[in-house]
Write a structure and sequence with these properties.
Blueprint (H helix, E strand, L loop, with lengths): L8 E5 L12 H13 L4 E4 L11 H15 L5 E4 L5 H10 L7 E5 L8 H14 L4 E5 L1 H4 L5 H10 L3 E6 L4 H10 L5 E4 L5 H6 L4 E4 L6 H12 L3 H18 L6 H9 L16 H13 L2
Parallel strand pairs: 1-2, 1-8, 2-3, 3-4, 4-5, 5-6, 6-7
Helix pairs in contact: 1-2, 3-4, 4-6, 6-7, 9-10, 10-12, 11-12
Amino acid sequence: MSKNSKFRGTGVAIVTPFTKDGNVDFKGLEKLVNYIIKGGVEYVVVMGTTGESVTLSKEEKQSVVEHVIETVDKRVPIVLGLGGNNTQEILTALKKESFAHIDALLSVSPYYNKPNQRGIYQHYKAMAEASPLPIILYNVPGRTASNISADTTLKLAEEFKNIIAIKEASGSLEQCMKIIKHKPKDFLVISGDDALTLPIIACGGEGVISVAANAFPKDFSEMTRQIMAGNVKEAQKLHYKLTDIIEQLFADGNPAGIKTVLEMMKICSSNVRLPLVKVNKATQNALTELMEVYK
Protein backbone atom coordinates (compact mmCIF):
# COMPACT_ATOMS: atom_id res chain seq x y z
CA MET A 1 0.00 0.00 0.00
CA SER A 2 1.29 3.47 -0.91
CA LYS A 3 2.35 5.73 1.94
CA ASN A 4 0.07 8.34 0.35
CA SER A 5 -3.05 6.16 0.51
CA LYS A 6 -4.21 7.77 3.78
CA PHE A 7 -5.08 10.86 1.71
CA ARG A 8 -7.27 8.99 -0.77
CA GLY A 9 -10.99 9.54 -0.32
CA THR A 10 -12.63 12.46 1.47
CA GLY A 11 -10.77 15.07 3.45
CA VAL A 12 -12.71 17.93 5.03
CA ALA A 13 -11.49 21.52 5.10
CA ILE A 14 -13.06 22.30 8.45
CA VAL A 15 -14.49 25.68 9.41
CA THR A 16 -13.38 27.55 12.50
CA PRO A 17 -16.53 28.23 14.57
CA PHE A 18 -16.85 31.61 16.28
CA THR A 19 -19.02 32.81 19.14
CA LYS A 20 -21.29 35.83 18.74
CA ASP A 21 -18.58 38.04 20.22
CA GLY A 22 -16.02 36.83 17.69
CA ASN A 23 -13.96 34.42 19.77
CA VAL A 24 -13.10 30.88 18.69
CA ASP A 25 -15.89 28.52 19.72
CA PHE A 26 -13.96 25.47 20.91
CA LYS A 27 -17.10 23.57 21.93
CA GLY A 28 -18.49 24.04 18.43
CA LEU A 29 -15.17 22.98 16.93
CA GLU A 30 -15.16 19.78 18.99
CA LYS A 31 -18.75 19.03 18.00
CA LEU A 32 -17.93 19.57 14.32
CA VAL A 33 -14.83 17.34 14.33
CA ASN A 34 -16.67 14.50 16.06
CA TYR A 35 -19.59 14.86 13.65
CA ILE A 36 -17.51 14.62 10.49
CA ILE A 37 -15.42 11.70 11.78
CA LYS A 38 -18.63 9.86 12.70
CA GLY A 39 -19.76 10.62 9.15
CA GLY A 40 -16.97 8.45 7.78
CA VAL A 41 -14.50 10.89 6.25
CA GLU A 42 -10.91 9.78 5.72
CA TYR A 43 -9.05 12.82 7.10
CA VAL A 44 -9.36 16.37 8.44
CA VAL A 45 -7.77 19.55 7.07
CA VAL A 46 -7.31 22.36 9.59
CA MET A 47 -6.26 25.98 9.00
CA GLY A 48 -7.28 26.12 5.35
CA THR A 49 -9.14 28.91 3.57
CA THR A 50 -12.45 27.52 4.81
CA GLY A 51 -11.07 27.74 8.35
CA GLU A 52 -10.59 31.53 7.92
CA SER A 53 -6.96 31.05 8.86
CA VAL A 54 -5.90 34.48 7.58
CA THR A 55 -8.06 36.19 10.22
CA LEU A 56 -6.74 34.17 13.16
CA SER A 57 -3.82 35.30 15.30
CA LYS A 58 -0.80 33.04 15.70
CA GLU A 59 -1.97 32.14 19.21
CA GLU A 60 -5.49 31.34 18.00
CA LYS A 61 -4.15 29.15 15.21
CA GLN A 62 -2.04 27.21 17.66
CA SER A 63 -4.99 26.75 20.03
CA VAL A 64 -7.29 25.60 17.22
CA VAL A 65 -4.74 23.09 15.91
CA GLU A 66 -4.08 21.73 19.40
CA HIS A 67 -7.83 21.37 20.05
CA VAL A 68 -8.35 19.55 16.76
CA ILE A 69 -5.45 17.19 17.49
CA GLU A 70 -6.88 16.44 20.93
CA THR A 71 -10.40 15.91 19.58
CA VAL A 72 -9.33 13.74 16.64
CA ASP A 73 -7.29 11.60 19.05
CA LYS A 74 -5.54 9.74 16.22
CA ARG A 75 -8.82 8.47 14.74
CA VAL A 76 -8.04 9.97 11.31
CA PRO A 77 -5.00 11.73 9.77
CA ILE A 78 -4.70 15.51 10.09
CA VAL A 79 -3.50 17.84 7.34
CA LEU A 80 -2.39 21.36 8.31
CA GLY A 81 -2.74 24.35 6.02
CA LEU A 82 0.61 26.14 5.74
CA GLY A 83 1.09 28.46 2.79
CA GLY A 84 1.31 32.07 1.78
CA ASN A 85 3.03 34.64 -0.36
CA ASN A 86 6.15 35.06 1.77
CA THR A 87 8.37 32.07 1.07
CA GLN A 88 10.92 32.91 3.73
CA GLU A 89 8.27 33.16 6.41
CA ILE A 90 7.04 29.67 5.50
CA LEU A 91 10.59 28.29 5.58
CA THR A 92 11.06 29.77 9.05
CA ALA A 93 7.87 28.10 10.23
CA LEU A 94 9.02 24.78 8.77
CA LYS A 95 12.22 25.00 10.81
CA LYS A 96 10.66 26.18 14.08
CA GLU A 97 7.36 24.31 14.35
CA SER A 98 7.21 20.77 15.73
CA PHE A 99 4.22 19.50 13.65
CA ALA A 100 3.58 16.77 16.20
CA HIS A 101 0.55 14.64 15.25
CA ILE A 102 0.29 16.33 11.82
CA ASP A 103 0.43 13.95 8.85
CA ALA A 104 0.90 16.36 5.92
CA LEU A 105 0.86 20.01 4.92
CA LEU A 106 -1.56 21.63 2.46
CA SER A 107 0.18 24.60 0.90
CA VAL A 108 -1.65 27.12 -1.24
CA SER A 109 0.19 28.64 -4.19
CA PRO A 110 1.47 32.18 -3.44
CA TYR A 111 -1.32 34.72 -3.82
CA TYR A 112 -1.37 38.44 -4.67
CA ASN A 113 2.30 38.52 -5.77
CA LYS A 114 1.26 36.66 -8.96
CA PRO A 115 4.53 34.75 -9.47
CA ASN A 116 5.20 33.19 -12.87
CA GLN A 117 5.67 29.42 -13.24
CA ARG A 118 9.40 29.65 -12.45
CA GLY A 119 8.60 31.51 -9.24
CA ILE A 120 5.93 28.99 -8.24
CA TYR A 121 8.35 26.13 -8.90
CA GLN A 122 11.14 27.75 -6.83
CA HIS A 123 8.70 28.49 -3.98
CA TYR A 124 7.65 24.85 -3.69
CA LYS A 125 11.19 23.60 -4.29
CA ALA A 126 12.34 25.58 -1.25
CA MET A 127 9.45 24.21 0.80
CA ALA A 128 10.08 20.62 -0.26
CA GLU A 129 13.75 20.85 0.68
CA ALA A 130 12.88 22.22 4.13
CA SER A 131 9.71 20.32 5.04
CA PRO A 132 9.74 17.44 7.54
CA LEU A 133 6.29 16.41 6.30
CA PRO A 134 4.70 15.45 2.97
CA ILE A 135 3.29 18.40 1.01
CA ILE A 136 0.00 18.66 -0.84
CA LEU A 137 0.07 21.47 -3.40
CA TYR A 138 -3.06 23.64 -3.55
CA ASN A 139 -3.98 25.25 -6.85
CA VAL A 140 -6.89 27.69 -6.55
CA PRO A 141 -6.57 30.44 -9.19
CA GLY A 142 -9.86 32.02 -8.16
CA ARG A 143 -8.20 33.07 -4.89
CA THR A 144 -4.53 33.35 -5.79
CA ALA A 145 -4.85 35.12 -9.19
CA SER A 146 -2.37 32.65 -10.69
CA ASN A 147 -2.56 29.06 -11.91
CA ILE A 148 -0.09 26.26 -11.19
CA SER A 149 0.21 24.84 -14.68
CA ALA A 150 0.03 21.10 -15.28
CA ASP A 151 3.66 21.17 -16.42
CA THR A 152 4.79 22.84 -13.18
CA THR A 153 2.80 20.37 -11.07
CA LEU A 154 4.30 17.42 -12.95
CA LYS A 155 7.82 18.77 -12.62
CA LEU A 156 7.42 19.19 -8.86
CA ALA A 157 5.85 15.73 -8.54
CA GLU A 158 8.72 14.12 -10.44
CA GLU A 159 11.55 15.92 -8.67
CA PHE A 160 10.40 15.94 -5.03
CA LYS A 161 9.13 12.71 -3.49
CA ASN A 162 7.70 14.54 -0.48
CA ILE A 163 5.36 16.51 -2.76
CA ILE A 164 2.72 13.80 -2.78
CA ALA A 165 -0.44 15.36 -4.16
CA ILE A 166 -2.23 18.39 -5.53
CA LYS A 167 -5.58 19.78 -4.48
CA GLU A 168 -6.83 20.97 -7.87
CA ALA A 169 -9.39 23.79 -7.80
CA SER A 170 -8.61 25.31 -11.19
CA GLY A 171 -12.01 24.26 -12.48
CA SER A 172 -10.31 22.80 -15.55
CA LEU A 173 -10.96 19.12 -16.18
CA GLU A 174 -8.52 19.34 -19.07
CA GLN A 175 -5.73 20.43 -16.71
CA CYS A 176 -6.65 17.72 -14.18
CA MET A 177 -6.60 15.06 -16.89
CA LYS A 178 -3.17 16.14 -18.13
CA ILE A 179 -1.76 15.80 -14.62
CA ILE A 180 -3.47 12.45 -14.09
CA LYS A 181 -2.21 11.10 -17.41
CA HIS A 182 1.46 12.00 -16.84
CA LYS A 183 1.90 11.96 -13.03
CA PRO A 184 4.16 9.59 -11.08
CA LYS A 185 2.37 6.45 -9.91
CA ASP A 186 1.84 7.40 -6.25
CA PHE A 187 1.12 11.12 -6.81
CA LEU A 188 -2.50 11.99 -5.97
CA VAL A 189 -4.78 14.38 -7.82
CA ILE A 190 -7.38 15.55 -5.29
CA SER A 191 -10.45 17.55 -6.21
CA GLY A 192 -10.68 21.02 -4.71
CA ASP A 193 -14.12 21.63 -6.24
CA ASP A 194 -17.02 19.88 -4.51
CA ALA A 195 -19.18 20.05 -7.63
CA LEU A 196 -16.47 18.50 -9.83
CA THR A 197 -15.43 15.71 -7.47
CA LEU A 198 -17.30 12.96 -9.32
CA PRO A 199 -15.93 13.80 -12.80
CA ILE A 200 -12.38 14.38 -11.52
CA ILE A 201 -12.34 10.98 -9.80
CA ALA A 202 -13.95 9.37 -12.85
CA CYS A 203 -11.00 10.73 -14.86
CA GLY A 204 -8.52 9.16 -12.41
CA GLY A 205 -8.42 11.50 -9.43
CA GLU A 206 -8.26 9.91 -6.00
CA GLY A 207 -10.37 11.99 -3.67
CA VAL A 208 -11.45 15.41 -2.55
CA ILE A 209 -10.77 18.02 0.09
CA SER A 210 -14.34 19.15 0.61
CA VAL A 211 -16.20 22.10 2.08
CA ALA A 212 -19.66 20.55 1.80
CA ALA A 213 -18.57 17.52 3.84
CA ASN A 214 -18.50 19.76 6.94
CA ALA A 215 -22.29 19.42 6.91
CA PHE A 216 -22.78 16.30 4.78
CA PRO A 217 -19.89 13.99 5.65
CA LYS A 218 -21.81 10.73 5.30
CA ASP A 219 -23.28 11.39 1.85
CA PHE A 220 -20.22 13.13 0.45
CA SER A 221 -17.71 10.54 1.62
CA GLU A 222 -19.96 7.73 0.41
CA MET A 223 -20.32 9.38 -3.00
CA THR A 224 -16.54 9.61 -3.19
CA ARG A 225 -16.06 5.98 -2.20
CA GLN A 226 -18.65 4.80 -4.73
CA ILE A 227 -17.12 6.60 -7.69
CA MET A 228 -13.61 5.54 -6.64
CA ALA A 229 -14.89 1.96 -6.64
CA GLY A 230 -16.35 2.43 -10.12
CA ASN A 231 -19.96 2.27 -8.96
CA VAL A 232 -21.14 5.08 -11.20
CA LYS A 233 -24.91 4.82 -10.71
CA GLU A 234 -24.64 4.78 -6.93
CA ALA A 235 -22.23 7.73 -6.98
CA GLN A 236 -24.44 9.70 -9.36
CA LYS A 237 -27.43 9.41 -7.01
CA LEU A 238 -25.49 11.02 -4.19
CA HIS A 239 -23.79 13.53 -6.49
CA TYR A 240 -27.14 14.85 -7.74
CA LYS A 241 -28.59 14.78 -4.25
CA LEU A 242 -25.87 17.26 -3.25
CA THR A 243 -25.48 19.48 -6.34
CA ASP A 244 -28.19 22.08 -5.61
CA ILE A 245 -26.99 22.54 -2.05
CA ILE A 246 -23.35 22.77 -3.15
CA GLU A 247 -24.27 25.53 -5.59
CA GLN A 248 -25.90 27.57 -2.85
CA LEU A 249 -23.09 26.95 -0.36
CA PHE A 250 -20.81 29.03 -2.56
CA ALA A 251 -23.40 31.48 -3.94
CA ASP A 252 -22.51 34.24 -1.46
CA GLY A 253 -19.04 33.29 -0.29
CA ASN A 254 -17.20 30.55 1.56
CA PRO A 255 -17.33 29.70 4.46
CA ALA A 256 -20.41 31.86 5.06
CA GLY A 257 -22.58 29.37 3.16
CA ILE A 258 -21.43 26.22 4.91
CA LYS A 259 -21.57 27.93 8.30
CA THR A 260 -25.18 28.89 7.61
CA VAL A 261 -26.05 25.22 7.11
CA LEU A 262 -24.03 24.15 10.17
CA GLU A 263 -26.05 26.62 12.24
CA MET A 264 -29.29 25.12 10.90
CA MET A 265 -27.96 21.73 12.00
CA LYS A 266 -27.12 23.15 15.46
CA ILE A 267 -23.45 22.20 15.14
CA CYS A 268 -21.98 25.70 15.35
CA SER A 269 -22.95 29.30 14.63
CA SER A 270 -22.86 31.05 11.27
CA ASN A 271 -20.56 33.79 12.58
CA VAL A 272 -17.63 34.78 10.37
CA ARG A 273 -14.88 37.35 10.81
CA LEU A 274 -14.54 40.55 8.81
CA PRO A 275 -13.90 41.17 6.00
CA LEU A 276 -16.27 38.22 5.49
CA VAL A 277 -19.96 38.63 6.31
CA LYS A 278 -22.91 36.27 6.62
CA VAL A 279 -24.80 35.21 3.50
CA ASN A 280 -27.48 37.46 2.04
CA LYS A 281 -31.18 36.88 2.59
CA ALA A 282 -31.76 35.22 -0.78
CA THR A 283 -29.03 32.64 -0.18
CA GLN A 284 -30.23 32.09 3.39
CA ASN A 285 -33.74 31.39 2.11
CA ALA A 286 -32.50 29.10 -0.66
CA LEU A 287 -30.41 27.06 1.78
CA THR A 288 -33.32 26.87 4.24
CA GLU A 289 -35.63 25.51 1.53
CA LEU A 290 -33.05 22.96 0.38
CA MET A 291 -32.38 21.76 3.91
CA GLU A 292 -36.08 21.32 4.59
CA VAL A 293 -36.32 18.65 1.87
CA TYR A 294 -32.85 17.12 2.26
CA LYS A 295 -33.00 13.57 3.61
